[in-house]
Amino acid sequence: MITAEQKDHWYAFGFLVLRQLFAPEEVKDLRQATVEVMNRTGGEDALTSGSKYGMGAFVERHPVLTDWLVDDRIYGIPETLLGPDFLLETNGGFVWWGDTLWHGGFSPEESPESYYNTAKVAMYFDSLTRDDGCLRVIPGTQRRPFGERVRPQQNHDDRDAMPFGVAQEDVPCVALESEPGDVIVFTERVFHSSFGGKKGRMQIASEYAANPTASEQISALWEQHEKFAFSYHPVRSYIDSDNPRIRRMVSRLVELGCTPISV
Amino acid sequence: MVTPGQKTQFETFGFLTIRKLFSETEMDRLSSQYEDIMRDDREGQPFKGERQSVHPFVEARPSLIELIDDERIYETVEGLLGQGFLWVASDGNYYVGDTPWHADGLRHAIDPKLEDWHYPMIKVAFYLDPVAKDTGCLRIIPGSHKSEYAERLKATADRSDDPSFVPFGVEPAEVPAFPLETEPGDVLFFNQDLHHGSFGGVVRRMFSTSFVTNPTSEEHIAFLKRAHDATKLTLRPHVSLVNSDRPRIRGMVTRLLELGFETKGG
Which of A45, A147, A250, A251 would be a feasible disulfide site paired with A141, CB 3.0-4.6 Å? Predict the structure, then answer.
């Protein structure tokens, strides 16, 4: 479970790396389940051909992955960091490679009143280092004003942009190198990127939000709901799950009138 | 000399590394002078592997004072701190072992009633040997020179070398930080309010000089006076600087004398 010191780390830096949370046999089962879902959803060539793959509402499609979601080691993360009434925003399975340029922070339209805490829990199935695709973060940028000072670095299109006088891959950051079995927790608001990812780099991730209570927060959630096909759209099988943790994670979305989807 | 991108990098992240600013020949000469000064401090005794620190340092050799007036240093500092920047201090060090996390910047001299204090003090560091992440290079927490972020990082501000100290639940060497790996000839310019430390090093040779922005407010002047009174060597210009025939060197210390700070040496 997340300790008080780890919570301090999260508050200060915007991420956590939980080493070897899952044993090799468990990682093997999770990997197999992930590949099975990929094969059923158009990703059968992703690991071999070098194509990219991404699918939302992913863990709902396999019982091993659903078990992962409600496992104490995963469930306890948002429960501690975001509160016991956290929401399941979305989740996904991905095969990605190459560079992901720096992004994160706050959009210009976002006000302090509309802000609510979020967390993403990611597992990679390969050993990853700084120069072959591990996640890189600029610690501390999940909060204002540092996050706003770094905003010039956010440029999804221009690989050669150098607002701070250095190339994208030389921006001061921390590389979250990992081994299979490690779990990486970060908020999408912390500036993050990756460089040099090799073909076939596979990942599962679940994303969570603190329960929004203010009207501005609910409006902000609703904007995301309208903008994205999977964010804040509870899967019908989860609404009716016989697992109380699953039902609880999505019940507030139902309450807010979010549109369910089927997989 | 300082590009807009470099200035933005320094203001945002608190540091700037300029690679290969000095040639191998120049670094050999600087290393030789460094060894002379450190040996003089040991009264000719050989180095025995213990930490050694010499203050003041560059003032001991005219050629090192010239280094500060070199456009590669002077104009970079001027680009980062503005015209009229002031001398603070210099030191030479044999670092041995880890340096615990801390922030310099004379934080204790800051008036706690002031919000969002911003009065840049910069250290210019020359490492005389290659240093990397696990061999004792300086590690910094980017952006931690600014007060809001620094507030979150209080655990890493005070140079704790208690073996049971586990800031944020990790060993000190695992605190998220960016390593400023350098080769001889590279020069580091960093805001002294940055939280920094070093780990894994055995013996490292380094010398540095510090400068501060020209004070423009009563609060700045009050800070300098408190910093002066709280220390024994800082903000006390050496007579070699006061009497320098180089106008830019004299210019760095004239205001200190006007503020009533005494000279050293002579």
Answer: A147
